[in-house]
Structures are given as C-alpha cells and as structure tokens.
C-alpha cells in the first residue's frame, strides 16, 4: 500500500495548523486501545459498538462472533467506519478510518493476527486458530480486515486541524 499524503482542510483548521504525516497516524492506530465500529443495519439504521482492533500490514483488524449484530450487518453491507481517539476537546488526536470489511479466513494469517492481538492486549486475548476462526474458550470469532479508503484525522486543542488521507480504489 502506498503511503498517502495528508491534505489539510483549512476550513476546519486553525491558522498555522499543518497536515499530519501518515506515519504519525499509523503510530496512533497501532497504539490505540479502543475503537468504535460503525456498521449499517439491513433497514438502513446505523449500529455503533466499541471493540478492540489491531493495525497490521496496512489494515485494521477486528473480530466478532458469528450471528452478532455487527456480523449480520456486514453480511449485507461491508462498508464501515472505525473511530478512535480521546474524549477531550482540548487535547489529543482522533482518527476515523473508512473502508470495506473483508473476512480473513486463512489460518496462517489468523495465527499472525492472534499473536498480534495477544501482544497488544495481553494473555486475556489469547486465541487458538482453526477452520478460519479465532477460538477462545467455548466461542469462536470471525476476523475482518479494513484497508482504509479514506482516513480523517482531527487535531484537538490549538492548533485545531483536520487532515485527510485517501487511497485509490
């Protein structure tokens, strides 16, 4: 994946603000502990839920149980937004990642992701991998990858800023 150039939107930025580098946004995505996933229900209403996610190889990865609301929503509409940041207006940086959730079912890839989950979130998030799923205790989970099509970054506090990164396709 090519590294996109950040474009500052002066309409939503303080004088003197600068566009952030993509490498800085990637560091924030890698380190973020909590994300909010927005999906669309079959009747068009939004559904938003908190979850954990791992940034790896140019994509955000999350998991969900078969039959959960978000999994059912994704079956009908794979377009999602994942959001992370802080709950402060005067400090921090928020990111929204827009893209399409694609199921990851290759056991080799899932083992790599399971190791990344545990490295980031600790032994409570240890997964076994079999038959295209994460397994944890009696349950199993589907894993999805979201490659960004568009990312918005919001700098809070002076200077306020809005940076946009986009990818082709």
Description:
This protein is globular. It has a single domain (7-163), classed as Pnp Oxidase, Chain A. With 169 residues, the chain is α+β, with helices and mostly antiparallel strands. The chain has helices at 22-31, 69-76, 107-121, and strands at residues 7-8, 35-40, 46-51, 54-56, 59-64, 79-84, 93-104, 128-130, 133-136, 139-155, 161-166. The longest helix is centred in the last third of the chain and has 15 residues, at 107-121. Strands 1, 2, 3, 4, 5, 6, 7, 8, 9, 10 and 11 form an 11-stranded antiparallel β-sheet that branches.
Q: How would you describe this structure in keywords?
A:
single chain; 169 residues; alpha+beta; Pnp Oxidase, Chain A; eleven-stranded antiparallel β-sheet; 11 strands
User: Please, how many helices?
Assistant: 3
H-E order: EHEEEEHEEHEEEE
CATH architecture: Roll
Helices and strands: which structural class? Answer: alpha+beta
Q: What are the segments in which pLDDT stays under 50 over at least 5 consecutive residues?
A: none
Average pLDDT figure: 95
Short summary of the structure?
The chain is of the alpha+beta class.
Write the layout of secondary structure elements.
Layout: E1 7-8, H1 22-31, E2 35-40, E3 46-51, E4 54-56, E5 59-64, H2 69-76, E6 79-84, E7 93-104, H3 107-121, E8 128-130, E9 133-136, E10 139-155, E11 161-166
Antiparallel strand pairs: 1-11, 2-3, 2-6, 4-5, 5-10, 6-7, 7-10, 8-9, 9-10, 10-11
């Amino acid at each position: 994946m090519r590294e996109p150039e950040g474009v500052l939107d002066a309409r939503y930025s303080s004088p003197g603000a600068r566009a952030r580098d993509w490498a800085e946004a990637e560091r924030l995505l890698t380190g973020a502990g909590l994300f909010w996933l927005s999906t669309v229900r079959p009747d068009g209403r939004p559904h938003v839920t908190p979850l954990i996610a791992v940034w790896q190889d140019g994509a955000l990865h999350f998991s969900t149980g078969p039959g959960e609301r978000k999994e059912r929503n994704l079956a009908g509409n794979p377009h999602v937004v994942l959001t992370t940041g802080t709950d402060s207006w005067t400090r921090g940086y928020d990111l929204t990642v827009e893209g399409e959730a694609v199921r990851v079912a290759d056991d080799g890839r899932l083992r790599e992701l399971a190791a990344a989950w545990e490295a980031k979130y600790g032994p409570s998030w240890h997964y076994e991998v079999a038959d295209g799923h994460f397994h944890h205790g009696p349950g199993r989970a589907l894993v999805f990858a979201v490659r960004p099509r568009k990312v918005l970054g919001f700098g809070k506090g002076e200077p306020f800023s809005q940076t946009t990164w986009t990818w082709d396709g």
